Amino acid sequence: MIRKSNFIKRSAALSFCLLTLITAGFATPYFSGYAGVGGTLKDSDDSAAFLLDGFFSGQFDISPSFIIRTSASLYTTSSIFSDFSFKNKECYFNLDEFSLTYRNYFGPVTQFLAAFAGDYDPIGSDLFLQRQFGIDSFTSKLTESISGISKATIFDNSGIGIAYYLKLPANTALGLYGYYNSAEALTTSTTTSTTTTEEDTPSLNADLRFAGAWSQVALDFVFGCNMPIERTYTNADGEEVNVVVLIQRADLHMGLTAFFGNTNSSSLLFQAGITQLIVDQETLADQSALSLDNVFLFIEPKFVTKNLIFSVALFNMPSDMLEHLYFISNPTGINLTVCSPWIVISGNRNQFGGMITVSSENSMDSLLQDASNLLSGLDLHIIPYGSTRFTSGTLNYSVQISALGITTVQEFFKAMVARISYKTQF
Questions:
Q1: How many CB atoms lie within 10 A of CB 307?
Q2: Is pLDDT above 50 for 1?
Q3: For residues 55-94, b (16+ Cβ closer than 10 Å) or e, as one string?
Q4: CB of 154 within 8 A of CB of 123?
Q5: Spatial distance between the Cα atoms of 175 and 163, rounded to a whole number of angstroms
């Protein structure tokens, strides 16, 4: 754990030095970004717990050719109510992104070469489409997080690596990514857990990306492979041998985000992907090539009328993708969202709505193997929410109630989770 903390400190110091040196060598840089803070009030071990989260994201255009982006988030894991002090609070820090991008114009084609650490153009987010084509965000309210950015990534493409991509004529883009994926390199925690899971296994990755945006359609498709890195192998005598790097197989992954329509009218958001498709014959002897637990699916048609906006969403997500989502707690379910248009109250724009989500804590594989699992793990979430836009930011607030099984007032309050967050842009 000390090693992780030292890594973060060294990375932060190196980033600051690089930023200072590069900035000094160019004209006055242009800076833009956003930041926010959020709080969650919920029941924990029969007592109220209040958790605070925060994030920061910024972009430095230090010249027409060089861009620096940085983004970080902090999540507390112990309640502020425990001693009303921020000292020695358990938390973990994510370096969401740090990147340096070189941009070059070659006739109608724009070239980009980037070195990055963290989530660079997350798969499933609309960030890549926004940055390349300047379109409005079409993220679903259902998959928002504290930062207002969708954290429902189709597969994990965070890591340390390089990217080369081209913005081509006809509003299209083509990219190539190569990166080393390791959870330990980008996250540090004040807790003492050292448990390593299969998802934390370091790997080398290579991805090919195609994206495009037109008047009524936006597409973002990624296809690539994941090569797990092993440090040991068993020889012919049954002995375990330590090695520096061993790659024995490559698994495929892919993701598609498609948006039809525009953000001010009726539309359809379709996302689908596979986090792991096994093609190695030796591995296939012990497990199937594809599990539904590794299938990502999100379909949300939205209908906009003069006085009402409503949408229906069907989703199936790998459970490890749900950690930072506000409104989705289980991997499989269906959702109905109804909200008002933006209403001006006391000079500020407001929007009010509500969600009803029926979901299951069991995976799709479990549900298909035994239909009785649907009733045993069923949840019904009722979520009234609202948003208020001020001059410099947006205040979001919601209450999530797990409605099944409530028989007393005490159980009602235990089943309630209240959230409030504020995001500002500068």
A1: 6
A2: no
A3: bbbebbbbbeebbbbbbbbebbebbbeeeeeeeebebebb
A4: yes
A5: 7
Q: How far apart are CA 269 and CA 143, in angstroms?
A: 12
Q: β-strands 187-189, 109-118: how paired?
A: unpaired
**Alpha carbon distance, N-terminus to C-terminus of the chain:** 35
Alpha-carbon distance of 175 to 220, in angstroms, equals 11
pLDDT higher for 252 or 12?
252
Whole-number average pLDDT of the chain = 83
> Hey, is 200 helix, strand or coil?
helix
Q: Give the residue among 356, 345, 325, 336 at the shortest CA–CA distance from 395.
A: 345
Per this entry, what is the length of the chain? 426
pTM to 2 decimal places: 0.85
Least confident interval from 139-148, 293-302, 311-320: 139-148
Both structure tokens of 61: 């255009």
Smallest Cα–Cα separation from 52: which of 87, 71, 72, 80? 80
Cα–Cα distance between 374 and 367 in angstroms, integer?
Answer: 6
Report the chain's C-alpha Rg in angstroms: 23
CA distance 364 to 316: 7
The two structure tokens encoding residue 355: 């969600």
Q: What is the pLDDT of residues 254-299, one digit of tens each?
A: 999 999 999 889 999 999 999 988 887 766 667 777 788 889 999 9
Half-sphere exposure for 254 (CA within 13 Å, toward CB): 9
Task: For strands 217-228 and 230-234, give the pairing.
Answer: unpaired
Beta-bridge partners for 205: 179, 226
How far, in Å, CA of 347 to CA of 239, rounded?
73
